[in-house]
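1st attempt posting a full record on here, be nice pls
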Amino acid sequence: MMWPMIPVSELCVLAVDCVNKTAPTVEYETEFKMIRTTNVKSGFIDLEEVRYVTEAVFQKWTRRSRPKYGDVILTREAPVGEVGRFTSDDDKVLLGQRLFHYRPDPKQLDWNFLAYVLQSPQVQGRFKGMGFGVTVDHVRVGDAERLPIPCPPLAIQKKIGDILSAYDDMIENNRRRIQLLEESARQLYKEWFVRLRFPGHEHVKIVDGVPEGWEMFLISEVCETVGGGTPSTKIAENWNGEIEWIVPTDITKNDCLFLLESERRISDKGLRESSAKIVPPWTILMTSRASVGYFGLSDKEVCTNQGFISIIPFNDDFRMYLLFNLMDRVNEIRANAKGTTYPEISKGQFRNMSVVLPPKLLAIQFGTVVFSVIQQIRCLKKATQRLESARDRLLPRLMNREIAV
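the predicted structure (as tokens):
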């Protein structure tokens, strides 16, 4: 016996679209955060990488609704059908364009169940089938309101929601731990190498802002810089091989420094017949085109497309120092990027930038601490991947009633 299909708006106290024009944002941080479609993904809502608005804009743009704990947000465009549970108590968040806002009626619909049923293959297929558009698929407001969803008894909804949200709660906890670990490494770099409160700093003389014994070099003098390439997409044999092929979105969409895997892989043939080059594990991967100055690390051999400069230190003792030095200088790197269509920093421009290196022993001390942090991040990232895989296998089986609850 199948569960009845009911339009989602009939099960909600609120089912409304966002204001469909762009809210004016400000360049400085305020209390008032605006989330966009890019903040909603795979059941989560990211409240870190947000845009900011003034209080007046916030009040104007939230007259129709503002999200609160227990709501569910859906993307209508770019991309279609991403879902996020609103698990924050922050009451100063507004929805940007192309987001649809559901507030389930707790007497009819469990909020966790709604988030997962919207992510189920059955409903995703129906929702994306509604998409239309010449350049970008999007879904009409009315279709988002009338979207039929399977509706079991409330007690079953709660059981399904509880089972699946337990996975997402662990995933979210891992992500928070990763953020804290990464921030601790950044702060250690700032403490030692920006504020110059490194171990033993009391006994080191500072001359013109640089501690004695520290030396300045060009980037080209301390590391190899490797470009990337793209095999011909017209030749099928170039693709779906065993070689990880990184593109900038693999880095920009990643939630931490450590990269588990790429979206696509190329073959040995694709590698041979393109300018892509294999780089060793723990190479510093820096995006150099369009989205300039995003960084990633992988524990395996990879290659990249042409949107990267891959950085291989000549002396491995300075690897972690160089990574965090460059991350701390993103604005400088971006200022060196040129281009009319999109900004790009060339290998030549990058190699001519200077870098101050501390004594080797200090770099080793820093690298030992920070690489331990990176390894913890790596373990948490892999644990998160296993949780996501288990949840994704379980979701359709619960929705198809293959597993009794």
